[in-house]
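Q: Entry one of two.
A:
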Amino acid sequence: MKIEKVTKNVSLKRSIDQGTDEQRQAVEAIIEKVRNEGDSAVRFFTEKFDGATLSTFKVTKEEMEAAYAHIDDEVLAALREAIGNIHRFHERQKRQSWLATEEDGTILGQKITPLDSVGVYVPGGTAAYPSSILMNVIPAQVAEVKNIVMVSPPDKDGNLPPGVLVAANELGVENIFKMGGAQAVAALAYGTESVPAVDKITGPGNIYVALAKRAVYGHVDIDMIAGPSEIVVLADENANPRYIAADLLSQAEHDALASSILVTPSQTLAEAVAIEVEKQLAELPRKEIASPSIRDYGAIYVTNDLDEAVAVVNELAPEHLEVLTEEPMQLLGKIRHAGAIFLGPYSSEPVGDYFAGPNHVLPTNGTARFSSPLNVDDFTKKSSIISYSKTALLANGKKISALARLEGLEAHARAVDIRLEEES
C-alpha cells in the first residue's frame, strides 16, 4: 500500500459514479420498456442479462423450504441470532406520534405513519447477500410496513441462492421475485402484472441499479445512491498491524473500486501494516478483486499527531470507521462524520456487517457529512397536525395576514381576515 504524509490541502474524497451517457441511456430505455410492457419486458431483460428463461418470477413456497437443506445448522442458528440482534437495535429507534396542547386550546402535533409498501433490492453476481435482506427488511418491519416486496437476480438456472431464500423466509417475506438490474427497479417503481408497485425502493446494486433508482426517484422514494464500499482505520502505535490489514482487506474484497485507508501518526505502524496487507492479500481467495482495490484506492496516511488524524477522518467522512487507539472512547466526541464507528480492537467491521445489530446500509463517498445509516425513520412518513382554536386565531390572525401580504399573497391574507370578521 502507498504510504503518504498528509498535507494541509490533501483531498481524500472520490466523486459518486454518475455513469456514462451510454449507461444512462440504456437504463432509461429499460425503464421505459418495463413501464410500457410489464412482465414481458422484464422476462426479455432477465434472459438477456442473466441468461435465465423464466415462465414465472415469483419464488414458490416449495423453493423456500427446499433452500434449508443447503444451510448448515450452525449457520442457521447464527442467522437467527443476528435477526434478533438487529431487530432489538432497530426497535429502540421507533418514534411515537405526539400531540401538544397550548394554553389557548390550540393542538399541535405530529402523526407518524408507516409506508404502505417497500421494495427491497438484493444484489447477486459475485456473492450472495443474505445480510442485505436483514438490514433492509427488519427496519421496515419494525416501522410496521405491511407490504414488503423483494427482488434479486437469478442465476442461469433461474434460482436464487439458498442463503437469500432462507434469510427472507426467516423474516416472513413472501413476495420474492427473481429479477435484477434496472428492470427490477422499474418493476418495483411502476408495477407489472406480477410485481406490485411500491412506494420506496431500498438496497444496493451495481451502476445500472443505482442509475435506475436515481431515474425513478420522485415517482417513488429511494434510500440512497450508494457508491463503492469504504473503510478508514484510525490507529495509533498501540494497534495490531495484523488486525488492521485484515480489516482493510475486508472492504477491498467487496469491489475493485472499494477504498481501504489507514490514518495514523505512527510511521512504524504504517510500514508494518503495508507489509501485512501484502502478506494477507497473497492468500486471499478474492484477491483478483481486492488487489486492484488496494492498488488504486488503498492508502496509508501518516499525520503529525492524533488530532490531525482525527481531522483527516472528519474530512473523509467514511462509510466505516474503526478507531484502534489506546483509548478509543476518548476520541468519540471529536469524530463528527462517519456512517458507523467501530471502537476498539474487537469491533472489527464485519461485526457490524452481520451480527451486532446496527444497520450496515451506510452513507458512502463522504455523504456521512449529512446522511445517516438506514433506519426505522426511513420507512415512515410524518404528518403535521394543526388544530387552531378560536382564541388563538383571534389573537394571531392579524399577524398571519400581515405575513401573507408581505409575500404578496392577498388570498392567503383574506382567508384569515374573513374569519376574523365573522368571529370578532
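Q: Entry two of two.
A:
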Amino acid sequence: MAKRRPTLLGAALGAALTATVLLLSTAVPTSAHNGGRPEDRGARNLGYSDYGVCRGTNPDCYHDWDNFDPTNGYRVLVYSRTVGPRHAHLGPALGPGLNPPLTEANAAVNGLRKLGADNNFAVDWTEDVTQLSSAGSLQRYNAVIFMSTTRDTLDDNAQTALMQYIRSGGGFVGIHNAFGTEYHWKWYEGLLGGANFYDHGPNQPGVVQIESRRDASTAGLPRRWAFTDEWYNLIPFPSQVRVLATVDEDTMLRGTTGNLGHPGHGDNHPVSWCQYYDGGRSWVTTLGHSVDAWTDTPTEGDTYFLAHVLGGIESAMGRKPFCR
C-alpha cells in the first residue's frame, strides 16, 4: 500500500508539537531553590525574558560613545520620588526642583551626599519628575541613582528620557525599593536584571556572602559579613547578570518566608548584581532598608554596606571597571 502523504494541517500540527517539546525540554520550572553558578541561576527560570535589548555581562552590550568625559569630573543624580509607601530612611517628601532643602531625617539622601563628598564626586538630588524629563538633562550625570523609589514614579517623558540616557551609555544604580518601582514597565524590569520585588520576610540579621571579589563593589570586603535587612524575595528571579553578593538564609533565624508567602530562595538568594543593559551599565542592590545604615550611628556591617554601594556607584558611572 502506498504511503499517505501528510496534509498541510498535519504538517503544521507536527511542527507545533516539535516546537513545544523543544521548549519544554530546555525550560526548568521556576523554583525557590535554583542551583548552578550564581550568574546563571535566574536565566534558567521560566520567568526569563530577553526584553528585546542587548544585555548581560558582555561589554559588547555597552555603547561607548564618549558621551561622558572624565575630565569634567563625576556627578550623579539621586532620585527618590515615591508614589505610595515611603521608607523611613527617605524621611519627609522633598520639595520641588533640584537640590531642595534636606532635614536630618532624609537619611539615605544625606548618606549618598556624604559618600560623594568623601570620595570626590558631586551629588544632586530630587523628587521632582520634571528634572528627569529629557535625556539632555540627564547627560550631565555619570549615573542616575534610584533610591527607594515607589511604584509609578516616572511619567511618560521621564520614562523616555531614562531609556535614551541608558542607551547613550549612562549608568544606573538601583537601591532597595527601586525594585518596588514601575511594575508595569517591562524595560525597567530588564534594567533591574529581569527581576522585581515580590515580598520580604522579617527585618532581621543575616550574613551577606560575597560571590565575586573582582568587582569594584566587592573588592576588599570580607567573604562574609553580618547585616540587618528585609532580604527581598524576587519574582522574576534575576537573569543574565553577574551576582555579586547573596544572603545566607541559614543565618536568618526568623525565617525566610515573605509576607505574601514566598518561601525564599534557599542557598541562592541574591542581594546585589550587575549587568550591561541596552547600551548602559546597571548595578543594583536590594539592601539598604535600615535608617541607621545611612547615618553615622554604628550598626553591624554598615561600613561594609556603604563601601559596597560606593563601589557600585563608581563602577556604574565609569570611574572604576564595571561588573568584573
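A: Comment on entry two: Residues 1-48 have pLDDT under 50 and may be disordered. The domain at 37-316 is CATH 3.40.50.880 (Rossmann fold).
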